[in-house]
Amino acid sequence: MTTDAYAAAYAQSLEDPDAFWGEAAHAIEWITPPTTVLDSTNTPLHRWFTGATLNTCFNALDRHVRDGRGDQPALIHDSPVTGTQQTITYAGLLSRVATFAGALASLGVEKGDRVVIYMPMVPEAVVAMLACARLGAIHSVVFGGFAPAELAARIEDAQPKVVVAASCGIEPTRVVEYKPMLDAALDRSTHKPESVVVFQREQALAAVGERDTEWEEMTWDDLVAGAAPADCVEVAATDPLYVLYTSGTTGRPKGIVRDNGGHAVALRWSMGNIYGINPGDVWFTASDVGWVVGHSYIVYAPLLTGATTVLYEGKPVGTPDAGAFWRLIAEHKVRAMFTAPTAYRAIKREDPSGALIAQHDISSLETVFLAGERLDPDTYEWATKVLGVPVVDNWWQTETGWPIAANPRGLQPMPIKPGSPTVPMPGYAVATLDETGSPLPAGEEGAIAIRLPLPPGTLPTLWGDDQRFVDGYLSTPPGYYATGDGGLVDEDGYLYVMGRTDDVLNVAGHRLSTGSIEAALAGHADVAECAVIGVADELKGQLPRGLVVLKGGVDGSGAEGGRICAELVQRVRDEVGAVAALRQVDIVSALPKTRSGKILRKTMREIADGRTPNVPGTIEDASVLETLTPVLRPPA
Fold first, then answer.
1. Strand partners, 392
2. 314-326 residues labelled b (16+ CB within 10 A) or e (exposed)
């Protein structure tokens, strides 16, 4: 590859997107090939490959089997929490997917119907996703750690015809039963599915069909017994493949829509050009199918490529030790892996010298990719030193589905700068803007925005709400997509992402709304008002902290205050889920606000992180900050 391969690709993607993405589309097999590449007839909404048709499942499975890859491993399920491993070939995965697609079709699932999937890291989760894609149905995967309130909100919005769940998830120290949480979610949702399908796991069998419900309940095994395999359904490139919900700063969760055509083209392009993974390579992404990284880089991108993907049901530490990743890499001959910096910080804490690496032959490993939160220089330096391979940051969002900025290892490897995810990828016209929406020069920090149109694979809209998409993402300023992150671009064109500019937390790579956590706190009988902020944490990147003002007459001191705080922590666990990781709640006399009543979360966050706070002139009572400072930042 020539030394200017990146510059040429990037320039063409912005100056002639029809030519660039039209060429990339040749890597996908179409039923009706695209004649229109970029459709800008309804700006600011843009669509890709209008008029073309395909099937994503066919591109991920059938064509590989047809072309001679049937005996190649497609999926390796490695589950230290159950002590089992399973390798499924492309032919085997195709058989399972076609059968389950037929089973879903027998329940009346058709093109355009929604199916909510509430499962842990088991092959059946991947089978269910691909079976939906095969039928042209729209899957919405909900992370198995979410509590009933969060699950109910997603069911309410997606309105699925069928819910597919597992009986339980398995943590290193406990079994988490899913069916009671699903039952509670369905009870509180006004939308009821027609059918609920439960995959039984021996660690905790669920009660199926024992309640008097409006919907039919059955086990996975009973449903697939005798089911006839289903063929692929032709869908438009612009038809939705899935809806994945992400936390907003306020209100109901946002349903990120992913289309079929643009998604397939972008992910296939990214796998080879960004991650350097080709057909037949073994690729390991340590994430969860409930998050966007799991959708893109556990399931779709590797299978669209014809690679082997590792589905890992375990933790970076504790299953059984901090050498878990190295064992997996050695056993499965992994060429590259992808996870969040949190995982490497956890490994570093348990095994600071990297001694456990020596117990495994990880010579197959060529690259480590990290994303989901900022890769701090300390973690980068440590991982680079102990592994001896490039450790590569990349930055993107649930909304974009694939990297905004990365180091294109397959296209043209570039020098690594610690703290930077490197440069914008093709199609992403990244700019840093000042408060008036004007572009800033190199080196000056501002709001990171992307000039429209966004490239293929990014969200075309929000589920059922074009106007919310325009208002929330495309209006400040017009002509740009607002990422909600701040940062700068240096003189070499490298992007530096400094953190969120809104009130969304990033806990171990998981985006969580302060609003959902605050709603749980506010529901306590003794709480008058509350705020949740994300504070810097060495392991998880950010951790939420709760600050509550109690109602008049409520004793918040001593043991009584301790009881209230413990109840509040438990409420968040029950309402939002353990993934929120809220462990600290402080009772305070007042919260800092502007005169219009907006709580100054950013100011409190700056105090908690040890920085000099930027106190707005609109603050109502500056003395509140003096009272809060020793709470947020106790003296050393």
1. 369
2. bbbbbbeebbbbb
Is the domain of 479 the same as that of 527? no
Integer angstrom CA distances of residue 609 from 224, 386, 535, 604: 53, 29, 6, 9
Angle at 233 between CA 218 and CA 200, to 5 degrees: 20
Closest by CA position to 464, among listed 236, 154, 168:
154
Q: pLDDT above 70 covers what percent of the chain?
A: 96
Give the distance from CA 350 to its chain's centroid: 26
Which residue stretches of 361-513 are H helix?
377-387, 466-473
438 with 481, same domain?
Answer: yes
Compute the CA torsion angle 253, 186, 581, 339 (nearest 10 deg).
Answer: -70
- 572 or 272, higher pLDDT: 272
CA dist 396 and 459 (Å) reads: 12
pLDDT tens-digit map of 470-508: 999 999 899 999 999 888 999 999 999 876 766 667 777
Q: Are 468 and 532 within one domain? A: no
Q: Are residues 453 and 550 in the same domain?
A: no
CATH of the domain at 606: 3.30.300.30
The Cα–Cα gap between 189 and 152 comes to 5
Residue 555 near residue 564 (C-beta atoms within 8 A): no
Tell me whether residue 522 is in a domain. Answer: yes
Backbone angles phi, psi at 430, to 5 degrees: -80, 135
| Domain region containing 305 | 5-314+396-487
d(CA 267, CA 432): 26
Q: In angstroms, rounded to a whole number, what is the distance separating the alpha carbons of residues 410 and 407?
A: 9
Same domain? For 576 and 470 the reply is no
Provide the pLDDT for residue 107.
98
441 and 408 fall within a common domain: yes
Q: Does residue 33 share a domain with residue 80? A: yes
Interacting residues of 296 by C-beta distance below 8 A, sequence separation 6+: 267, 401, 402
1 pLDDT band, cuts 50/70/90, is: very low
What CATH number should be reported for the domain holding residue 192? 3.40.50.12780
